[in-house]
Design a protein that fits this description.
Elements: H1 3-12, E1 20-23, H2 27-38, E2 43-46, E3 62-63, H3 67-76, H4 79-98, E4 103-112, H5 115-132, E5 141-143, H6 145-151, E6 161-170, H7 172-185, E7 189-191, E8 196-202, E9 205-213, E10 218-223, E11 227-229, H8 235-242, E12 250-261, E13 270-273, E14 282-287, E15 290-294, E16 298-299, H9 310-320, E17 335-344, E18 352-355, E19 359-363, E20 369-373, H10 379-394, H11 424-434, H12 438-442, H13 459-467, H14 473-480, H15 483-486, H16 488-500
Parallel strand pairs: 1-2, 1-11, 2-7, 4-13, 11-20
Antiparallel strand pairs: 3-6, 4-6, 5-6, 8-9, 9-10, 12-15, 12-16, 12-17, 13-14, 14-15, 18-19, 19-20
Helix pairs in contact: 2-7, 2-10, 3-4, 4-5, 14-16
């Protein structure tokens, strides 16, 4: 159902009988919408901005269990963190099979300065792989100095050996859009640029909400007591629409990343540097035609349009410099982005249901359920736990869930090939972007590159507008193509070119 059809139906039948209204269109909200649609619920999802516009498109692009969490779990005998890693490793391969055009195994190299370090990391990563069981993606290997220099030529000479292992890498923003497209095919109604402005109460209980269509500047009301707040770092803002005096459930931590030329990582393998000044790990990863460096972890107030602070830039540059032969300067930065992780505060005595998986499901006394915390790799577990909680609280009738399914763009058995005379870079871009839908994008019209020397074609604008909930040029540049994060200069050139050709909003001349 298109945006226009949803609003037409709301105007004709204002008392829609939704089984579930979800607030938030990031990984948590999209996962809830998808899983709820799979079990037969009639779902409405509302997002204040563009889908995936928050932290869900600003991750380190890894599907992983969390090596650092495992180390912490062992050192502190923390069962919850251990369980989080185990669950995430079990989910990792399942998610990769859902959208193989958007995911891939990624070898990560951890450099070592002496035999003791190599033995320590080898044993730890062997245990990490053992936890994955049959869902493991590859082997753990010890690398000699010669092998390390061959596979990581820019790594500093102080490293004498290394350990390599395999995790998953994915396109976070496009994965989320594919989740939403799949939910839509199952009947979910999805609206971005529709911020919730009010929660309606009757006898102290939430019975509905008001929201605003930012594109048409109209106000709408929905009657539904089954509402789930999945807005991540902005969770408390929604909760306090019903009661401004509610104590906060979350604080937020800022995770910043820099995007650099691939010359600083001239390999398809990533680097994991485990010894930073503040005890965090540092990732340096191949990301399409670029190199991704991250991440920070600083307490910070969440905002809708975050700008990376200078202190984060200087921190990342200072932390990576001792490890590389080539010096990275601020002038080398092509792009940067920052997002906010929701950090769960204590919920003792607040009627919460705590799950030992780094996420929590909380119900306020007014009936509003909030899903908070978690990570990209465990979105299915989060959604299933939340639906089980909601079933009990709201007496929902759930069908038997499907455990294995593919996302839009990943139909099994569809050959991923395009016309032989198509420019290879364009073919590769379309297949990695759209999977089995690449040919449908091609069929929208003649292949016309938007900017010479780059693989983006005019047909993609039509597709983004008609099929991918795309309403602004920034939606396209930032989240459907990710160029806004990767290369600020190229992003500006593409915007100017699209405007000059008068291709937006529909992509049709």
């Amino acid at each position: 159902m298109t945006r226009e059809q949803i609003f037409q139906q709301l105007s004709e039948q204002p008392e829609q009988n939704f089984d579930l209204v979800i607030i938030g269109g990031g990984a948590s909200g999209a996962g809830l919408a998808l899983e709820a649609s799979h079990v037969g619920l009639k779902v409405l999802l509302l997002e204040a901005n563009d889908f995936m516009s928050g932290t869900s498109s600003r991750s380190t692009k890894l599907l992983h269990g969390g090596v650092r969490y495992l180390e912490q779990a062992i050192k502190t005998l923390d069962w919850q963190k251990y369980q989080l890693v185990k669950d995430a490793l079990q989910e990792r391969k399942q998610l990769m099979s859902m959208a193989p055009h958007l995911c891939r195994p990624l070898t990560l190299v951890t450099p070592c300065k002496n035999p003791f370090e190599q033995a320590y990391y080898y044993l730890g990563l062997q245990f990490y792989q053992w936890l994955a069981g049959k869902q493991k993606l590859g082997r753990v290997s010890r690398l000699s100095r010669a092998t390390l220099q061959a596979c990581q030529p820019n790594l500093g000479a102080q490293y004498r050996s290394a350990v390599s292992y395999v995790d998953g890498q994915f396109d976070d923003a496009r994965f989320g859009i594919s989740m939403l497209q799949t939910a839509q095919q199952l009947g979910a109604q999805l609206l971005n640029y529709c911020p919730v402005t009010k929660l309606h109460l009757r006898d102290g209980q939430v019975v509905g909400l008001s929201f605003r269509d930012e594109l048409k500047h109209t106000e709408w009301q929905i009657q539904c007591s089954q509402i789930i707040n999945a807005t991540g770092a902005f969770c408390d803002q929604i909760r306090q629409l019903a009661d401004p005096e509610l104590p906060p459930l979350v604080s937020s931590s800022r995770g910043s990343h820099l995007v650099l030329p691939r010359k600083f990582l001239p390999t398809d393998q990533g680097l994991l540097i485990p010894n930073t000044s503040d005890g965090r790990v540092l990732f340096m990863l191949p990301w399409q035609d670029y190199c991704l460096l991250g991440t920070t972890d600083n307490e910070s107030q969440a905002s809708l349009e975050p700008q990376i602070p200078e202190q984060d830039i200087q921190y990342l540059l200072a932390e990576i410099r001792p490890h590389l032969k080539q010096r990275i300067s601020k002038q080398d930065i092509l792009g940067c982005f920052t997002g906010f992780r929701p950090l769960i505060q204590g919920l003792a005595g607040q009627g919460s249901s705590k799950i030992s998986r780094d996420h929590q499901i909380h119900q306020d006394s007014n009936g509003l359920i909030s899903l908070i915390g978690g990570k990209w790799t465990t979105w299915r577990i989060m959604a299933q736990d939340c639906l089980a909680f909601a079933k009990q609280k709201f007496s929902l009738n759930l069908q038997q869930p499907s455990q294995h399914y593919s996302l839009v763009g990943a139909q099994l058995g569809v050959p991923l090939q395009l016309a032989a005379d198509l420019e290879p870079s364009i073919a590769q871009h379309l297949l990695s972007q759209y999977g089995d839908q690449a040919q449908q994008v091609m069929d929208l019209g003649p292949v016309e590159p938007i900017l010479a020397g780059h693989p983006y074609i005019t047909n993609e604008l039509i597709w983004a507008y008609e099929q991918e909930f795309c309403h602004k040029i920034d939606d396209l540049i930032e989240r459907r193509w990710r160029i806004g994060q990767q290369n600020a200069k190229l992003a500006a050139q593409l915007k100017d070119r699209i405007s000059a050709l008068q291709l937006w909003p529909t992509g049709r001349r």
